[in-house]
Amino acid sequence: METRELRYFVAVAEELHFGRAARRLGIAQPPLSRAIQQLERRLGAELLERTSRSVTLTEPGAVLLREARAALDAVEAAERRTRRAAMPNQALVLVAKAGAAGELLAKLLDAYAAEPGAVEVDVQLCGIAEQERMLRDGRADVALLHRPFDSTVGLDTEELSTEGQIVVLPAGHPLTGSPGVRRADIAALPGLPLPRWPTADGTYPDGPGPEVRDHAQLMQLIALSRTVAIVPESARTQLRGDVVAVPLLDAPLVTTVIAWPPHSRSRALAGLVRAATRL
Amino acid sequence: METRELRYFVAVAEELHFGRAARRLGIAQPPLSRAIQQLERRLGAELLERTSRSVTLTEPGAVLLREARAALDAVEAAERRTRRAAMPNQALVLVAKAGAAGELLAKLLDAYAAEPGAVEVDVQLCGIAEQERMLRDGRADVALLHRPFDSTVGLDTEELSTEGQIVVLPAGHPLTGSPGVRRADIAALPGLPLPRWPTADGTYPDGPGPEVRDHAQLMQLIALSRTVAIVPESARTQLRGDVVAVPLLDAPLVTTVIAWPPHSRSRALAGLVRAATRL
DNA sequence: ACCGCCGATACCCGCGGGGTATTGCTGCCC
DNA sequence: GGGCAGCAATACCCCGCGGGTATCGGCGGT
């Protein structure tokens, strides 16, 4: 199988429409139809169910969609990493969630910079759920993730720290100064539903809370009394003046881990991981 | 990048000889030379250092070799898994080391078979260090691995059991019946060096011990007083009459884990993992 | 019943991947 | 030191295949 075929199939499987997929790929529709037919013949599997009005995935098609995405990511990663290896000054790309792990990240960068042979570290702050993809397709070398929120499937990790969580409320909320609340109390707060974060595919789950996509937006919405949030304790130092925090007693512990793609331990990456585990 | 280019590069990088690589690929040498040049141009990286007498990998070339193998495995896995998904009766392929994990495996198969909706399980016994590759390229769905011997990088795992280890000696050896020995005692045994197992690339490390590649061969060599072995306790029940075992007091604990490729939890696999964790 | 949408088919073209023949370089051996 | 052998690169040709346009066939909606 050639990557071209995989790209074609992924386009059709995502669009579920040959015409749109062809436009997205920058080719005409007929060659795309043929390519998919050829792929189906070679695999001996019907990948798509077509009527003249709709295209749907069969079960083998769903399997291939998942696998093809992973394979294309691996190919893309090979390309990117080779390009990077050929560059003269090879910075490590570290990706972290904007607004999270701030203090730990600063300490890590300091500790690593003090090591002999440390290379430049290029810190990329990105949205939720984008980190895993960046690691997988070679755009990033290493990430700071938070268990149990982020999936670490298929990545190598080292645990860095574990902490409790706090509830962030609008300033002046009745619970301000409370010695501690429970999850059930938060869920029952009148008019303050928990926010909805985008899932891996970029869509939002259903629910009453507002849709948020980054930390600043979340804080703004809290200050406006539109929502509340449960965040790791370490985020307390970064809170704005118009929100307050109270401890959450029965929150699951949050573990910050440093994660990197398997089989990719360059010297520089190994040094960074070593510095991280010594914090 | 197309998989064809990756296959070509891997062949040349492994053979370090354009002629042999071309023969292995079933094409002539000139198109292969051109394809590699084209790849180098597109990546903007010199991958191979050629003189008229030798070909060597550059550092970006070494990166690409590693990444290309992973990418090709992913593509191959996509193909195999799609084919399998299209077959009517989809057995789960479980791979275990021949001669290891025997009892646990039997219990696991029984427990899973008793579950509702259980599918057939195709047990493949293979040599050391081949299991990971079979999982990665889609020939197997799930494996029983032994930490810390097997690498579980890039795989999802669940721990099943932890046990100590024992030393297997020729029958009649002076240590027979000893209440327990230490690693230092074993290393110092006159004329009984520890065996050498093949590494991931199929070669053997240097050392005094005999080369072994499977369990039966190892037992035979022990019975012949050519070597000794350190194996998990559970292997005791499978020992032949002409060898004896004594406990090893300071051995690292061996953990048997069930492992599967990330993002590949079919219903059947999930059932098997569930049955395993309930053992 | 007709129109419009969409995937499949028919047919054509040009590029690029693959082949053979040859060159050019270099280490080795007599 | 000159000739030879081995190997990658170059030159040149060809055909298969990937891609394009035109068209068909089937089906749903109005």
Automatic annotation (TrEMBL), chains A, B:
Residue ranges of every copy of the HTH lysR-type domain listed in the record: 1-58
The entry assigns this protein to a family as follows: Belongs to the LysR transcriptional regulatory family.
Q: Which PROSITE patterns match?
A: HTH_LYSR (PS50931)
Q: Which UniProt keywords apply?
A: DNA-binding, Transcription, Transcription regulation
| Signal peptide feature range | none
In terms of InterPro entries, this protein maps to:
LysR_HTH_N (IPR000847), LysR_subst-bd (IPR005119), WH-like_DNA-bd_sf (IPR036388), WH_DNA-bd_sf (IPR036390)
* Official protein name in the record: LysR family transcriptional regulator
| Pfam families named among the record's database cross-references | HTH_1, LysR_substrate
